[in-house]
Design brief:
Blueprint: E1 35-44, E2 50-59, E3 62-67, E4 77-80, E5 85-88, E6 90-95, H1 141-149, E7 152-157, E8 164-172, H2 179-182, E9 183-193, H3 208-226, H4 235-242, E10 247-251, H5 255-267, E11 273-275, H6 284-290, E12 293-297, E13 303-304, H7 309-312, H8 317-325, H9 329-335, E14 340-343, H10 353-362, H11 367-374, H12 376-381, E15 399-402, E16 413-418, E17 421-424, E18 435-441, E19 444-453, E20 456-463, E21 466-468, E22 470-475, E23 478-484, E24 493-501, E25 504-510, E26 516-525, H13 535-538, E27 566-574, E28 581-590, E29 593-598, E30 607-610, E31 615-618, E32 620-625, H14 655-662, E33 665-670, E34 678-681, E35 683-686, H15 693-696, E36 703-708, H16 730-756, H17 769-778, E37 782-788, H18 791-803, E38 810-813, H19 821-827, E39 830-833, H20 851-857, E40 862-864, H21 875-886, H22 890-895, H23 899-904, E41 922-925, E42 936-941, E43 944-948, H24 952-975, E44 980-981
Parallel strand pairs: 1-4, 1-5, 6-7, 9-10, 10-11, 11-12, 12-14, 13-44, 27-30, 27-31, 32-33, 36-37, 37-38, 38-39, 39-40
Antiparallel strand pairs: 1-2, 2-3, 5-15, 7-8, 8-9, 15-16, 16-17, 18-19, 18-26, 19-20, 20-21, 22-23, 23-24, 24-25, 25-26, 27-28, 28-29, 31-41, 33-35, 34-36, 41-42, 42-43
Length: about 1000
């Protein structure tokens, strides 16, 4: 039975406290300062230290003393807590509890907003450090009660909205106080996310990489502003600088985002407290190395209802595995000495917090670690351990009383004391009325059985083997029973109301016809309230954790693949060099490099691969790819986004990495999309399946940036509501470039003058990431890959580059390249094109499949790219098409996807051909690599086998077995009455140049 208010005998204060110095005009001013003594309890004074048969003495809102030899004042109210356990109340560090949220922006206006609506604040509406949670409070007693019922006594509240979301406050869940008493610290934290604000339409940022770039620029701007380098007022930057001394909390929400947030913090010397997503175990080594502290949710997924075999196909293997693995997350974090606290955030229902906490303990989280993560650790993080986090003399009287061991599923939280105010959740010493009774009313006798837990009793009434539907309520000492008549055609009831005293219940009965009479129930048998022990039945079973794979989806490996010494014997080698194609040749791979090429090479302990009848080539390099990118390929919120970089958002879990490996692709240039004239920076990666994003990046590769021309950047196909951004014409595109490069030159001159001390202006210029990147282009330290179609624009950009004394490195798509191939050759620009795409939009109408061959004939360095996650799996066939259409040689065609893209990306000294000393990025094909029948049998990167066709059948069998086992486990969970959820198709689509927003919806669910 739950109680929401204090019993009168313990009512020692007003429901809402007034501050001491406030006048009282509605009655006599009085205060109560009595003692409470909780005796004979097991008290956890900390997570690791407990006292048996102890007394806890409190007065007002403080702990006076705790121990076994406590002198109890005569006037103290004594509460016998025999058999009960007392713990410090839990501390929640991540919540929006009590925040009065602003009105959502109105729907209906679909015109993008590019500029801020505010004056005197930062230029971007998603940056709101000036927002203070303590100024926007609406204390919610119902929500507070729900949190207290699961053990929380104090909470950090903030508004989780915007890239920089403002400050949070720290306060208590005390219904009986005002905010003047509840608030412990009005500004305790500053909050960051990767997400836009829901309350502004401003378009930038529209991607995660945009959010990361924006945060970086804020840090630079805040430092510059703090040094007094500007005369304008910026209330956002002033607030941001003022908040730097607070706890910095980053809502990441996923293992890869955890690492991104930590890396971002490292750039500016900030150690973020990172709110994770519960999947940190999937990258536990990297999480451990980060050295960060994490806020970990307990939102374990329910089993999927896989009863329908067709619907079950929609559930990905990764989601099935996560259902099994998620409860082990905290155990693995504790084992790896990762610092963490536990949150109730992300739970649909707060009531599931305690069951999930107990489940985490059952699955291996040590109890002391769990308590530390809910008490001492969060208290120390908010610098409030002198007030909360343990049961110690002088601290706030914040504690919970539990019927037994907190982590026993049969234990219940009985009371939660907050700042010395008692909140009764259940009776600490409840009256037990369970038993079998002789029930008599209206001269009829029945048998009444009262069973169940004392906090949730059930009643059964029977006579002569006939059972009567019965409902019971017990509010000590009052008992109410409602009995339904056996006549199913009528809704007639008998109502009994009485009091319980020492085994006797008696009172008034109201019969079906409305007549009143008396009734009695005399206990005739005392039920043994201790559960009958059936060790086999009651012992909770912990399932075996499915092995974490790298990545933790289908086709992941149980261990990261390791480098090997491999000798390919007697194979046909496509060198890509002047030696051409060598038949019957051996190639030795050692220490990640191509060590030897020749005939009859000794094996010398190497793994020997018989290449007879097979072909060995350099790995395919996709010069234009959009795979392996998280949360947006375009940052189209502005007409220039040079400040963003794909390197921030490499997604090592993308199944397309594995699919590309199966098609012989070993590396890819991940490009920003074509939503704006000046796009973001590229990321060159090797497709090291199972490795982390950081390990996939080739950090010493030359740096590139995406530019774009044509329909996409002038928003031709964005709809009529999206035509308010400059440029809206091809002429305007040119002016964007003129403007930005002119500004970049002025920016450099300003900095040069400042650094030399010769300029008139002694004020330090603003550090602008965007201008810094454009300066790298002018300095020939960063290279442009430009999305292009129409010859007029291609000519325009080459001429513009020449005016600014640099050259374009690559035109990608370049489907009218055959028209200006001579000019391209003279400029020195490469062409990265499609083999035979044409007429898929208006500006492509003049495309021809002979484009690649014609450009090459004019001296242009040509490559064939994919721009598509599906086509990249068969780039070997795309290269072969140029033999048909352009009559190029087979070796030249093969170079279009190997050596030529390596030259275009300026990495041909390392990859792109089979040459001694180059990286061992090679592919063994079953036939000629240009054949439509060939298969990649082994794909090797840096001497590591990342794809092996020989093992594919074994892998597929293992996937099928894992799915079958997990489906059976989920069916078993459903049969046991556990909650289930409907099958859901996992939406993991393909990005293209013109994909806007963070998500796309082409699904490949089965093997994700």
């Amino acid at each position: 039975m739950r109680y929401l208010s204090l019993l009168l005998v313990f009512l020692l204060s007003f429901s809402v406290k007034a501050q001491e110095y406030f006048p009282k005009n509605d009655g006599v001013k009085q205060s109560f300062k009595n003692y409470f003594a909780l005796t004979n309890a097991t008290i956890y004074i900390s997570a690791t230290q407990k006292i048996e048969k102890a007394t806890l003495l409190i007065k007002e809102n403080k702990i006076v003393d705790v121990g076994t030899m406590i002198a109890i004042p005569k006037e103290a109210t004594i509460i016998d807590a025999t058999g009960k356990t007392i713990y410090p109340s839990f501390i929640e560090l991540y919540s929006e509890f009590g925040i009065n949220k602003p009105t959502a922006r109105p729907n209906g206006n679909f015109t993008p907003q590019y500029d801020t609506n505010r004056e005197g604040y930062y230029w971007n509406d998603h940056i709101k450090p000036e927002y203070n949670a303590y100024e926007n409070l609406s204390y919610d007693e119902k929500a507070a009660g729900n949190l207290r019922e699961v053990g929380f006594g104090s909470i950090l509240s903030h508004h989780n909205d915007g890239v920089i979301a403002g400050t949070g406050l720290f306060w208590t869940l005390n219904d009986k106080a005002t905010n003047a008493d509840r608030i412990i610290k009005e500004k305790i934290s500053q909050h960051f996310t990767f997400s836009r604000s829901k309350f502004t339409k401003q378009s930038y940022p529209s991607s995660m990489m945009g959010s990361m770039a924006l945060i970086r620029q804020v840090f630079h701007d805040a430092k510059w502003y703090a040094q007094g380098n500007t005369t304008n007022k910026d209330l956002s930057l002033e607030a941001f600088n003022a908040n730097k001394s607070l706890l910095q909390i980053f809502n990441a929400g996923d293992k890869l985002n955890d690492l991104r947030a930590d890396k971002l913090g490292d750039e500016f010397g900030i150690k973020f407290l990172i709110k994770g997503g519960g999947n940190e175990f999937e990258r536990i080594e990297e999480i451990k190395k980060s050295g960060a502290t994490y806020i970990i949710p307990l939102n374990f997924p329910d089993a999927y209802d896989v009863s329908d075999p067709y619907l079950a196909q929609q559930v990905s293997l990764s989601d099935m595995k996560f259902w099994n693995q998620a409860p082990f997350n905290l155990k693995l974090l504790a084992q790896n000495n990762v610092s963490f606290v536990i949150t109730s955030a992300d739970l649909k229902d707060t009531k599931s917090f305690l069951p999930n906490l107990r489940k985490a303990v059952l699955y291996g989280l040590p109890k002391d670690k769990a308590l530390l993560a809910l008490t001492e650790n969060p208290a120390k993080l908010v610098n409030q351990f002198d007030k909360i986090g343990s049961i110690t003399k002088g601290k706030l009287a914040n504690f919970i009383i539990v019927s037994g061991d907190l982590f026993d599923e049969k234990s219940t939280i009985l009371e939660n004391w907050v700042q010395g105010d008692r909140n009764i959740i259940d009776k600490i010493n409840p009256t037990d009325i369970r038993g079998t009774y002789d029930l008599t009313f209206d001269n009829q006798k029945f048998e009444l059985k009262i069973e169940g837990e004392t906090s949730k009793i059930e009643a059964k009434i029977s006579r002569d083997s006939i059972n009567y539907g019965t409902k019971i309520q017990f509010n000590d000492p009052w008992v109410n029973l409602v009995i339904k008549n056996q006549d199913t055609t009528k809704a007639n009831f008998v109502r009994l109301s009485g009091t319980f005293v020492k085994g006797l219940i008696q009172g008034k009965a109201v019969l079906e016809n409305g007549n009143e009479t008396t009734w009695t129930a005399i206990k005739k048998e005392i039920i043994n309230t201790e559960e009958k022990k059936d060790d086999k039945k009651d012992e909770p079973k912990v399932p075996e954790m499915y092995a974490v794979t790298f990545p933790n989806i289908a086709f992941g490996t149980k261990e990261k693949p390791k480098q090997e010494t491999i000798l390919f014997k007697n194979t046909t080698v496509w060198t890509g060099e002047k030696e051409g194609i060598l038949k019957g040749t051996d190639v030795l791979i050692q220490n990640g490099k191509i060590a030897k090429i020749g005939k009859n090479l000794p094996s010398s302990g190497a793994k020997v691969v018989d290449g007879t009848g097979k072909h060995l080539t350099a790995g395919i390099i996709d010069e234009h790819s959009h795979i392996a990118i998280s949360n947006g390929v375009n940052e189209g919120g502005q007409n220039s986004s040079a400040e963003v970089t794909i390197e921030d958002v490499v997604n090592s879990d993308d199944i397309n990495i594995y699919r590309n490996l199966s098609g012989g692709v070993t590396s890819a240039n991940l490009l920003h999309g074509s939503a704006n004239p000046i796009g973001g920076r590229a990321a060159f990666i090797k497709l090291k399946w199972g490795y982390s994003p950081d390990e996939m990046l080739v950090k010493d590769a030359p740096k590139y940036i995406k530019f774009a021309l044509g329909e996409n950047v002038k928003q031709s196909n964005w709809g009529d509501n999206a035509r308010n951004r400059f440029p809206q014409s091809r002429m305007g595109v040119e002016q964007v470039y003129e403007d930005y490069f002119t500004r970049a030159i002025e920016y450099k001159n300003e900095w040069d003058a400042y650094k030399s001390g010769k300029g008139k202006n002694k004020i330090m210029p603003r550090f602008d990431i965007e201008m810094e990147i454009l300066g790298e282009i002018l300095a020939k330290k960063r290279f442009i890959t430009c999305h292009s179609y129409v010859q007029s624009e291609i000519n325009m950009l080459m001429k513009l580059a020449e005016r600014y004394n640099f050259r374009i490195q690559t035109f990608t798509h370049i489907l009218e390249g055959y028209k200006v191939a001579d000019k391209m050759s003279a400029h020195g620009v490469a062409g990265s094109t499609f083999a035979d795409w044409w007429a898929y939009k208006f500006e492509v109408n003049d495309a021809i499949p002979y484009n690649a061959a014609i450009m090459q004939s004019q001296g242009v360095s040509v490559s064939i790219n994919s721009d598509d996650a599906e086509m990249s799996r068969r780039l070997n066939q795309e290269a072969a098409k140029t033999v048909k259409y352009g009559n190029v040689t087979e070796e030249e065609a093969w170079n279009f996807v190997t050596l030529n893209p390596a030259k275009i990306l300026q990495i041909d000294n390392k990859v792109g051909s089979i040459k001694i000393g180059k990286d061992a990025d090679v592919v063994l094909w079953s036939e000629s690599p240009l054949s439509i029948y060939t298969k990649a049998e082994k794909t090797i990167i840096d001497g590591i086998i990342f794809y092996d066709l020989e093992k594919e059948n074994q892998t597929l069998s293992q996937i099928q077995k894992e799915r079958a086992d997990l489906i059976n486990a989920m069916l078993d969970a459903k049969n046991k009455g556990m909650k289930t959820q409907a099958p859901k198709k996992k939406e993991t689509g393909h990005y293209h140049c013109d994909t806007l927003g963070e998500y796309c919806k082409e699904s490949h669910y089965k093997y994700n």
